[in-house]
Amino acid sequence: MSRRSRAREVALQSLYQAEINAALDPRHRDRFHKGRLRSAPLIAFADAIVDGVRERQADLDALIDARSENWRVSRMAATDRAVLRIAAFELLHTDTPGPVVIDEAIELARRYGGESSPTFVAGILGGILADRDGRPRPAAG
């Protein structure tokens, strides 16, 4: 696993923890990131992902909702929701290449989600990437 992949994984874990325990002390995240990553650039990368997702969560959720068929963000598995938020944030607000973002998200979905999570995540993110790049959407059906 690459170092940035590890930072994404830690960001996923942080977002998941915060979602299932809203009363979690924000300082916990700092200790968690430092303990798991031990590298200032990777800690900063994970922090930026978590902060970016939390600051833009409503917009990210609306975007994910618009690209998902038959599922609302609120009904998705918590791990899939966190993976999608991270990837959507990276696609829209970083210079990480789209295919890299999607590959990383699929791998996180494979490791932390259910059996259908990788395909589910890939489908939604493929649509978001196509929208971002101005490509026509594939026909449904």
- Work out the helicity level: over 70%
CATH topology: N-utilizing Substance Protein B Homolog, Chain A
Number of strands: 0
Q: Which percent band covers the strand fraction?
A: under 5%
Task: Calculate the mean pLDDT score and round it.
Answer: 89
Corresponding CATH superfamily: NusB-like
By DSSP (H or I, 4+ residues per run), the number of helices equals: 7
Distance linking N and C termini: 36 Å
Low-confidence stretches: none
CATH class: Mainly Alpha
Outline of this structure?
This protein has helices spanning 3-20, 26-37, 40-55, 57-67, 78-93, 98-112, 117-133. The chain has 141 residues and is mainly alpha-helical. The chain has a single domain, classed as Orthogonal Bundle (N-utilizing Substance Protein B Homolog, Chain A).
Output the keywords.
141 residues; mainly alpha; N-utilizing Substance Protein B Homolog, Chain A; 7 helices; 74% helix
Could you explain how this protein is built, in words?
Helix 6 runs antiparallel to helix 7. This protein has one domain (3-133): Orthogonal Bundle (N-utilizing Substance Protein B Homolog, Chain A). It has 7 helices and no strands. By secondary structure, it is mainly alpha-helical. 74% of the residues lie in helices and 0% in strands.
Secondary-structure map:
Layout: H1 3-20, H2 26-37, H3 40-55, H4 57-67, H5 78-93, H6 98-112, H7 117-133
Helix pairs in contact: 1-2, 1-3, 1-5, 2-3, 3-5, 4-5, 5-6, 5-7, 6-7
